[in-house]
TrEMBL record:
It comes from Eilatimonas milleporae. Catalyzes the hydrolysis of dihydropyrimidines and of the structurally related DL-5-mono-substituted hydantoins, to produce N-carbamoyl-D-amino acids. Keywords: Hydrolase, Metal-binding, Zinc. This is D-hydantoinase/dihydropyrimidinase. The modification N6-carboxylysine is found at residue 150. The keyword Magnesium does not apply. CDD domains: D-HYD. Homotetramer. InterPro entries: Amidohydro-rel (IPR006680), Hydantoinase/dihydroPyrase (IPR011778), Metal-dep_hydrolase_composite (IPR011059), Metal_Hydrolase (IPR032466), Metallo-dep_Hydrolases_sf (IPR050378). It catalyses: 5,6-dihydrouracil + H2O = 3-(carbamoylamino)propanoate + H(+).
Length: 480
């Protein structure tokens, strides 16, 4: 099974150059000029196009059971839609209920994901604490290739992790060489504001952003960062949506901390006015947490991405259809939180990032693929077009255009938050594990063709942090 991509410009995060790319048995075997074409090889003409590492979306929730329902997009449909947009790998989340055994939850999610068309991995959420969680974190890292643990600082009464859980889990993660990640929002504050707004009679989706102000996110980001600094572990903050959280990350980085930040395509482009839409279904379709913010935050997030304060882009793809959103018709706090975007992330980023001059093409590759691969320690197997890497490639046509619409998207959800957006820059072809899965509008994704990707522990920053810890071991004072 071989395939050759001819005549394009290879773009990696460090440089671009003209080359052909030859793939065999799921691996890139050669990158060079004027490569021979074996007789049986499938040929892709990439003339005038870029040949880039397939996108990695580090934040999705396929078929997530959440807020009394289950996300409409499953691992098969979601990874197929991803490949229509040039994304060849997702990192999803195992989210055990409080008291639920971590390994049992992990096995359940692994079973659901077997039908994935593209490669996938899992962050595992720590929502509670006891000795079994401590032990299972060890098993997950050492035997199952999990190298990141998620903590929800919001969703009080459900999956929220209190500070005690954060402390124990961050400490254990450091010992294992796994990165703690957080959804940073002060869950107590959100809870209190939700009650207050409902008492005031503000029951519609317009109350959603009011109950989750940027200050609640900034406070939680700072708390997680300070805990990580004292414990001495790295930290990855998911879906940074506002200036307040961004500033906490920038300050921590300036203090020498290993804090990574992720931003969602939606938070870069959509503002909070959507929650005041007169049609409940439209306003509710945008209910996600943290919410879309005032415009000043989008400008700040773009600068965070440009400056390197934020390193990755995700979608938090978590789809609920209108009848599901209607569960919160009379109480906004019951609207299932989540929006889609896994198919659109790369073209939206290209249109508003590269064509506007905010990002170079190499930076585009970094923030859509390579940085996630590096942070989660699967680089250069993923996130790189080079000999020996997995043949996960997107052939990118910078001149192609379309208008995003729910009528034409491949995502299994009845709304598109980017509806009507005119896009320039699209995946013309997507290659996953050496197989052509998307070719000029023809989706050829195969159920179950994706594999679980094990991620080794101790990505490079752990070795640096270990040296700092060794130099700062607390000592007792010997007194007579
Ligand atoms: N983001 C969201 O609203 N739903 C999915 C769960 C989460 O990431 O917080
Ligand atoms: Zn979240
Ligand atoms: Zn999420």
């Amino acid at each position: 099974m071989s395939l050759i991509i001819k005549g394009g410009t290879v773009v990696n995060a460090d440089r671009s150059f003209r080359a052909d790319v030859y793939c065999e048995d799921g691996v890139i075997k050669a990158v060079g000029t004027d490569l021979d074409t074996p007789g049986d090889a499938e040929v892709i003409d990439a003339g005038g196009q870029y040949v880039m590492p397939g996108g990695i979306d580090p934040h999705t929730h396929m078929q997530l059971p959440f807020m009394g329902t289950v996300a409409s997009e499953d691992f098969e449909t979601g990874t197929a839609a991803a490949m229509a947009g040039g994304t060849t790998m997702i990192i999803d989340f195992v989210i055990p209920d409080p008291e639920e055994n971590l390994m049992a939850a992990y096995r359940k999610w692994r079973g659901w994901a077997e039908k994935a068309c593209a490669d996938y991995a899992f962050h595992v959420a720590v929502t509670w604490w006891d000795d079994s969680v401590h032990a299972d974190m060890g098993t997950l890292v050492r035997e199952e290739g999990v190298n990141s643990f998620k903590h929800f600082m919001a969703y009080k009464g459900a999956i929220m992790a209190e500070d005690e859980v954060l402390y124990n889990s961050f400490t254990r993660a450091l010992e294992l060489g796994a990165i703690p990640t957080v959804h940073a929002e002060n869950g107590e504050l959100v809870w209190q504001l939700q009650r207050k707004l409902l008492e005031m009679g503000i029951t519609g989706p317009e109350a959603h952003p009011l109950s989750r102000p940027p200050e609640a996110e900034g406070e939680a980001a700072n708390r997680a960062i300070r805990l990580a600094q004292v414990i001495g572990c790295p930290l990855y903050i998911v879906h940074v949506s506002c200036r307040q959280a961004l500033e906490e990350i920038a300050r921590a980085q300036a203090e020498g901390s290993r804090v990574f930040g992720e931003v969602l395509a939606g938070h870069l482009l959509i503002d909070e006015s959507v929650y005041r839409h007169p049609d409940f279904d439209v306003a509710a379709a945008h209910v996600m947490s943290p919410p879309f913010r005032a415009k000043e935050h989008q400008a700040a997030l773009w600068k965070g991405l440009q400056s390197g304060t934020l390193q990755t882009t995700g979608t938090d793809h978590c789809c609920f259809c209108a009848p599901q959103k209607a569960m919160g018709k009379d109480d906004f706090s019951l609207i299932p939180n989540g929006t889609g975007g896994v198919e659109d992330r790369m073209s939206v980023l290209w249109t508003h990032g590269v064509t506007t001059g905010r990002l170079t093409v190499e930076e585009f590759v970094a923030v859509t693929s390579t940085n996630a691969a590096k942070i989660f320690n699967i680089y250069p197997r993923k996130g790189w077009v080079g000999e020996g890497a997995d043949a996960d490639i997107t052939v990118w046509d910078p001149a192609a255009t379309k208008t995003i619409s729910v009528k034409t998207h491949h995502q299994k959800v009845d709304y598109n938050i980017f509806e009507g957006m005119e896009i320039t820059g699209l995946a013309s072809h997507t290659v996953a594990n050496g197989k052509l899965t998307w070719a000029n509008g023809d989706l050829r994704a195969v159920r179950g063709a994706g594999s679980y990707v094990k991620r080794p522990a101790f990505q490079p920053v752990f070795h640096a942090l270990e040296k700092i810890a060794r130099a700062n071991v607390p000592t007792a004072v010997a007194r007579s």
